[in-house]
Amino acid sequence: MKLLKNMKQTLSTSHAASLLTQDENANWTYAGATALVEYLEECEEATGEEMEFEVITIRCEWTQYESLYKWADDYFAGDSWMDACNLDKDEDHDDDEIDEAIRNYINNNGQLIEFDGGIIVSSF
Asked: For FRET with 112, which of 11, 40, 62, 98 sits at 20 to 30 Å CA-CA?
């Protein structure tokens, strides 16, 4: 019996998102998984290069969060995120200003995907 090498399967967006949500070691919602797959499809189109779909690699390179603030709280210890995001701890900041500062930090250091229901951030 001969093994087939380099066999490829084309996945639909919904099938790829479904495969991500089946990963018990990740916390993908279907909306988040769909947003990530659509982003990866856009990257394929922009570069003209096909990507290999590896659930474990994707889990290691991307993480979903409920909000920008939840990401900052998880990524930084205590309120050190305010320093990293160039926010003065002694001043009051509205939610939009905080979100924009965190968004800028992520975009300057990695990739941010925002979707209705949360965000996805690349590892950096």
From this structure: 11
User: Would you say 61 and 26 are in contact if contact means Cβ atoms under 8 Å apart?
Assistant: no
Tell me the average pLDDT across 45-54: 93
How many CB atoms are located within 10 Å of the residue 65 CB? 18
* Mean pLDDT across 37-42: 97
Tell me what pLDDT residue 1 has: 62
Buried b (16+ CB within 10 A) or exposed e, 14-24: eebbbbbbeee
Task: Return the DSSP state at 3.
Answer: P
> What is residue 24's predicted lDDT score, i.e. its pLDDT?
94
User: In one letter, which amino acid is 34?
Assistant: T
Q: How would DSSP label each residue in 50-67?
A: -----HHHHHHHEEEES-
